[in-house]
Structures are given as structure tokens and as C-alpha cells.
Design brief:
By secondary structure, the protein is an alpha+beta fold. It has helices at residues 14-20, 23-31; strands spanning 49-53, 59-62, 66-67, 75-76, 85-90, 97-102, 108-113, 124-127, 132-136. The strands form two sheets. The protein has a six-stranded antiparallel beta sheet with strand order 3-4-8-7-6-5.
Length: 138
């Protein structure tokens, strides 16, 4: 029998995700929830390293692209080179936004907005801390 940990992330059932993730991570990553502004562990966190998906470990962002946008969530100017990011039109909550999901497991990460630093391309990837894990630079 195959070990459930060896499954492709897209083949993991919602029940299995519920077992693997904390309640907050499940709500954000699997139900497209959000954490309250200024409460996430990576909002004002600036160590050097990479940010990976908390659900599947796929590389998403690097610390060199992180900046303090003042929005209350970790903000990045761009995904990591080769990062596993997908973007989708989101019309929930009476708004039109661009949702950002993990390209490996489909987990909801946050949204991208066109109000980032102009000198860095003008994008702000506004990402929930609970959807991320940090791997320090060695």
C-alpha cells in the first residue's frame, strides 16, 4: 500500500488536508480564508531565506522580494524564480481581485494587487503568514 505522505498534493483529500494542517492553515489554504491583519508571524519578519507553501513545501517567495507594505500581511514584489504560483480571478466579497494559489497543491495564499513599489514592477503579493513556512538561508 502507498504511504499517504507520498501522494501528489493534488490527490490529497480534504479530510487528509484537515489532518495535516492546523485549523487556521486549513481555513486559509483549503477554504480561501484570511488571517486578521497584523497578526501573522511573518508580517514584520525579515530574516534571509525562502518562503515555502505550508501545505506542500513548494518554493513560493524569497526574502529579497519581501518588503514592509504596511498592509498587515507579508508582502512580496514577486514570486521566487521558478516559484509555484498560480493566479486566478476572484470575484468573492463583492470585489474583483487576483487570487494567488500554490501551483503545486492549489492552496490559497492570498492576493496580488497593482499597488506595489513601482521600481520593483508595481505588484504587491499580499500573503497570509499561515499559508507559509520559512526556511532560513544556510
Amino acid at each position: 500500500m502507498t504511504d499517504p505522505q507520498d501522494k501528489s498534493p493534488k490527490d490529497i483529500t480534504e479530510a487528509e488536508w484537515r489532518e495535516r494542517l492546523s485549523a487556521e492553515q486549513f481555513h486559509i489554504l483549503r477554504e480561501a480564508g484570511t488571517e486578521r491583519a497584523f497578526t501573522g508571524k511573518y508580517d514584520k519578519f525579515y530574516e534571509q531565506g525562502e518562503y515555502v507553501c505550508a501545505a506542500c513545501g513548494a518554493e513560493l517567495f524569497i526574502s529579497a522580494a519581501k518588503y514592509n507594505s504596511g498592509c498587515g500581511w507579508p508582502a512580496f514584489t514577486k514570486p521566487a524564480e521558478g516559484g509555484m504560483i498560480d493566479e486566478h480571478r476572484d470575484t468573492s466579497h463583492g470585489m474583483i481581485r487576483t487570487e494567488v494559489t500554490c501551483g503545486n497543491c492549489g492552496g490559497h495564499l492570498g492576493h496580488v494587487f497593482p499597488d506595489g513599489p513601482p521600481e520593483e514592477g508595481g505588484l504587491r503579493y499580499c500573503i497570509n503568514s499561515a499559508s507559509l513556512e520559512f526556511k532560513p538561508e544556510k
